[in-house]
Amino acid sequence: MSMTQTTTPSRLQRFLDSDFIYHFKRDKVAMLSFAVFLACALSAAFAPLLAPVNPYDPTAIDIMDSEMAPVWMEYSDPRFLLGTDPQGRDILSTILYGMRISLIIGILAVAVQMVLGVVIGLSAGYFGGRIDSFLMRFADIQLSFSTMMVAIIVSAIFRAGLGTQLYSQYAVVMLVVIIGIAEWPQYARTIRASVLAEKKKEYVEAAKVMGFKAPRIMFRHILPNCLSPILVISTVQVANAIMSEAALSFLGLGLPVDQPSLGSLISIGFNYIFSGSWWITAFPGLVLIILVLVINLLGDWLRDVFNPKIYKG
């Protein structure tokens, strides 16, 4: 007599066997995009180990090395693979450190957007009535302005209130807050639409009958069923936040020149591009384009996967 032993698969095994991974393995563009994004993220995370020099260390920088060309051009130095900027900093090192700052700002800004948008969208959709009208009209007013205009206005307010020196000292935190404030309506409108559909379902009515309070119903019952659109929006919004940081830094409203981000590097190099030092802007700009492109491609793939009506993978 043989006995069969049944084992319950682990969470990891269930995830690896899920439709999500199945569709991911069948989509070469998604796999390539994820591989490139993972390489960028790991390079940024381990920048202190991978970068030839520390661009924050004044003792490692020599002004005599300024505007060195990449190694395959004349007037180059083997120490600087991609050349140097006007301050003598190694371009490769500043890109690695700058990409880390850009990703940190992008991810944290999206976290701020998500918190604001989810709370406001849940409240508007669940309570309805005057609360819904007030919150959504406020979101509509903000959406009537461009994201960059809102970011510039908020940045100017912070600069005037804190002063240029204090603002520069906390520039990363300020940019996270600025971009978060500028982009939350995208989350709020999407979550509100999902809540309007979910709150009519039987499980919400059952929770009300059982005497659960509104916050518990909103966050423990309704919100988990609205996570799919949140994940899709977050992926795209990370790319938008990185672009917003780059644009603000390029306009001189973002990070100071001594804190390299992809946007500030492009801004620094733009002043020298017509003098022949094109690499100062070109390489950070290329990295920014690739980073934003792969994140957007992943966002498009996630949108299709979570919408079976349009997914043909």
Automatic annotation (TrEMBL):
Domain ABC transmembrane type-1: 99-299
Transmembrane segments: 29-51, 101-129, 141-161, 167-184, 222-243, 278-299
Gene3D superfamilies the record matches: MetI-like
Keywords: Cell membrane, Membrane, Transmembrane, Transmembrane helix, Transport
InterPro entries to which the protein is assigned, alphabetical: BP-dependent_transpt_permease (IPR050366), MetI-like (IPR000515), MetI-like_sf (IPR035906), OppC_N (IPR025966)
GO biological process, one term: transmembrane transport
Record PROSITE patterns: ABC_TM1 (PS50928)
Cellular compartments annotated: Cell membrane
A Pfam family reported for this protein in Swiss-Prot or TrEMBL: BPD_transp_1
Main localization of the protein described in the UniProt heading: membrane
Gene Ontology cellular component annotations, sorted alphabetically: plasma membrane
Topology of the protein relative to the lipid bilayer: Multi-pass membrane protein
Family as reported in the entry's similarity comment: Belongs to the binding-protein-dependent transport system permease family.
The protein's name in its UniProt record: ABC transporter permease
Origin species: Photobacterium lutimaris
